[in-house]
Each structure stands twice: as C-alpha cells, then as structure tokens.
Automatic annotation (TrEMBL):
GO terms under cellular component: membrane; mitochondrion
Annotated InterPro entries: ALO_C (IPR007173), FAD-bd_PCMH (IPR016166), FAD-bd_PCMH-like_sf (IPR036318), FAD-bd_PCMH_sub1 (IPR016167), FAD-bd_PCMH_sub2 (IPR016169), FAD_lactone_oxidase-like (IPR010031), Oxid_FAD_bind_N (IPR006094), Vanillyl_alc_oxidase_C-sub2 (IPR016171)
EC numbers: 1.1.3.37
Metabolic or biological pathway: Cofactor biosynthesis; D-erythroascorbate biosynthesis; dehydro-D-arabinono-1,4-lactone from D-arabinose: step 2/2
Source organism per UniProt: Pycnoporus cinnabarinus
Broad EC category: oxidoreductase
Listed transmembrane segments: none
First and last residue of the signal peptide: none
Record protein name field: D-arabinono-1,4-lactone oxidase
Presence of the UniProt keyword Oxidoreductase in the record: yes
Superkingdom of origin: Eukaryota
Amino acid sequence: MPSADAKSPPPPRASKMHDIPVHTLHQLLAPITVRRENPKATFTNWGLSYTCRPLSVFVPETEHQCRLILELARREGKTVRTAGVGHSPSDLACTTEYMLRTEKLNKVIELNAEKRFVVAQAGIVLNDLHAVLAQHGLAMRNLGSISDQTLGGVVTTATHGTGLDFPVISSDVRALVILLADGSRVRCSRDERPELFMASLCGLGATGIILEVTLELEPAFLLKEVQENQRFDVVVGNLDSIARQAEHVRLWWFPQADVVRVSSSNRTNEPKSPVGTWLWHSIVGYHLLQFLLFVARYVPILNIWLGRFMAWLAGGKMVSVDDSHRIFNIDCKYPQYTTEWAVPYDRAQACLRDVRDWLEREFADPSGLRPHASFEIRFSAADDIWLSPSNGQLSCWIGVVQFKPYGLNVPYRELFARFEQIMIKYGGKPHWAKSHPLGPAELRRLYPRFDDFVRVLEAVDPQGIFRNPYVQRHIFGKEGAEFGPRVFKKLP
Ligand SMILES: Cc1cc2nc3c(=O)[nH]c(=O)nc-3n(C[C@H](O)[C@H](O)[C@H](O)COP(=O)(O)OP(=O)(O)OC[C@H]3O[C@@H](n4cnc5c(N)ncnc54)[C@H](O)[C@@H]3O)c2cc1C
C-alpha cells in the first residue's frame, strides 16, 4: 500500500517558508501548475452547469507543496479553492483565483481491519477506496448514489445516502488532519479541537485543506434490494411504514405517471444475484432515452410522455443481491441540473402532497410547466454536525433532476424556483453541494450553530483565503457581480 508523502522532503518549518522569495515559490510549484492560459486549467462540474477558469490550478502530490501554495497565495493576496473531482452541482468548488486539485493526494495511509477504520488522503475517489477496503473485508456503512466523488468532497458537503437509522456520511468520520490558512497542520476530532472538527465535517472547503480523513467502517456486506412500482397516494399515505420497511429505502417518483418506484435494501447473507442486461440498459435505457429527451427540448409536451416512459422503463418487480456499494450506487445517466432539500421528516407527507398538487395544476394548465423530471426521496437520521442539513432532525430529502441530453441546456429555473418555494414553506434545508437561493439570514434561522461556524472560519482563516464566491455569498452575505449565483454559470 503506498504511503502518503513517501518521497517528499521534510517540510520546512513555517518560518522558513516566509524566507522563500515569491519567484522561487513559483519555480518550486511550476511542475504542478497549470496556468489560466492553458485550456486544461478550465474547471467544469460533472453536471456541465458551472465552469470557471482559475488564475492557476495546482495539482500537488505532497503536503509540502500544499504549504507552498498557501504561502504563495498569502503573499500575493489570493484565495485558494480546494477542489475534488467537480461533482458538486453548483459553483461550490469554483474560483477565478487559485485552485488546488486533490486528485494526487489519494493514498490510503493506514487500514485497521480489526478496529475497522481507515485513514486516507482526502483526494481518494470512493470507488478506489472501496477496492482497497474490499481486499481487507471492509466497507463503508452507507453511500450516496455514486462513488465517483473524493472522500474530501463527500465530507465537506455532508453527502448522504438513505436510511432512517443512517446519518450523513460525515458522521462516520472519526478524525481529520487539516492544513490551515497559516500553513499549520492540525488534527481534530470530537476530543481534539472539537469546534474545528464540527465545523469541518460539513465545512464547504472553508476551514482549510483536508489532508487526511479517519473513517469508521463495517465488515464488507451484501445488500438485497427489492424494487417495485406503487401509486403515489399509496406510498405517501403509508410513508412512515414504507420508510421503515428496510434499512435503506429510497423512492423515485414519476409524477407524469403517478408512479413511485420503491427501493428497499437490507443486509443479507444470500448469494449474489445482480440484475440488468447490457442491451436494455445501454441501448434503451441510455441512448434511446437521451435521444427522446433531446427531441422533447423542441416539443415540450413530449416530456409528460417521457416521464411515463421512464417509469415504464424502470420495469416490474426487481430483486437483486450484490456488494453494498453496487446496490447503493446507481447510474445517474446524463449531465443534469438538480436541487435537493432536507425536509423535517414529520412534515414530509404534507410537503410531498403539496408538490403533487402543484404539479397537477401545472399539468392541467395548457401553458403550465412540462418537466420530464423525476423526484428522488430519501431519508437520513439526525446528527449533530453544525452545518449538516440533518442537524438535530430526522430528515426526508426531496430532490429533482432535469437531464441535459447531449450536454445541452433544458429549461429548469422556473421549475426549481417553484419547487424551492414549497421546500422553504416546510422548513427544508438545501443540500450544500447543490445550487440554492438561501443567504445567511435564512440559513442562520435554520442552523442553530451557524454563527459558531462563522466564528471558527474567522478564527482559523481571518484573511478569508479559503472563501470563494459561493462561501462569500451564502455564508457571509456578500453581494455584487463577482459573488452572484450566475458568475460561473455554464452558458450554451
Ligand atoms: C451524479 C451525482 C450524484 C450524487 N449523489 C449524491 C448523493 O447521493 N447524496 C449526496 O448527498 N450528494 C450527492 N452528490 C453530490 C456530491 O456527493 C458532492 O457534490 C461532493 O462534494 C462531490 O465531491 P467532489 O470530490 O466532486 O468535490 P467537488 O465538487 O470538487 O468539491 C466540493 C466541495 O468540497 C470541497 N473539498 C473537496 N476536497 C476537499 C479537501 N480535501 N479539503 C477541503 N475541502 C475540500 C471543495 O472546496 C468544495 O467546497 C452527487 C453528485 C453527482 C454529480
């Protein structure tokens, strides 16, 4: 197993860093620098909805290089945005100044099968982590829909999976090693610098560069998933019993067809029996659907039929048994716009009925909205992470997606704006990685520890080195052209 920083020279002490002239810092960083003039410096998120061209992109392989980047930024009065692999469907990772990409800080440092934990560099992609864990009979307890993100990206956004007994993935973190704005390397946990720890678990990349994550694991397990279609009224009328019928329950609602696909997964000892044929999923489920989505850009009424087609494509009852991450993860298909909110669980039923009533009005109105969107509904346990949307509340996550066939734009803004108004009415909190309209005034009301979060940022990063436009806008309430929500919007 490769160890982190195996070949790097011992890092100079902070005082030595101050002595290095700026031009020497540039020289030292040259091998890992991609400058703005180089097209490779352009950073576009996976959803093809946001893009930016940083002044320089650095791809460090060692902690020492990370310190040099911070030293350079301090001297030049620049900000540094740490970025994973750009899977956030917003401008959360975007910047016009310095960007530090973590893709080469991706090693497993320590793995303890007996005590069931791993220490990994934050740039490791979850799929790579799963492969290492599997060799030692271990697995992550819960996952979201994909494993293409970095561990750091997952931790700083409180990425969630589903299950009423399963909190957001950051809850499985036992300790973090962070490089702070002044170049100091600190370790934090619930016992050591607990405030920095609670702020960093969903810290939006604003507390520092997360170098290492200690993650609690469980023995590798198989999941048995059962999927079947039910009517909306049946599902929402029995929401609590359905949400509790398995360890991990998630729902895909196709309002155009009045159908909810219910997925229920439990740990099992049954033999593996994965489902899915290449022909069906590749030819019909991917290529034909994409073409139809493309046609519907010009003939919006087709979207209603497309929603019904997607519900039909999902098929009848399906049972499969596979490695946990293969069941947790799904094919998210095409680039997309998306928004997602965590609504207090006890208000979810009323909230979902409100969304249904609104969509029925749209569909009945000849000039109403015609989304092809399906809605995803998931659950998470309460936690105590300061900015986790599940902080102090059992949550029902409600998300909506509009696909971009062949990467092309489709209408989504009016749809999302109306959807968000309903989420706000029911006390919903937006997913931090996804675009949302809330500023500090609203967020402060939703998050009892919001001001503590700001206090920690001001203490560990008084100059705001780690604050990009997203953080300035949503956390510090900065207004103006350079902080606006559409600064990094990807235009056609
Ligand atoms: C197809 C798809 C499916 C998804 N499914 C789910 C899901 O099921 N559940 C869910 O909750 N979310 C989901 N997400 C959202 C995703 O988990 C988050 O956006 C995650 O942050 C992406 O990780 P990344 O490595 O791409 O980070 P980026 O998008 O590159 O960065 C995200 C944030 O992490 C910070 N960051 C990254 N690395 C570090 C580091 N080492 N130190 C400090 N800060 C760092 C960045 O500064 C930024 O603030 C999904 C996204 C996509 C595109």
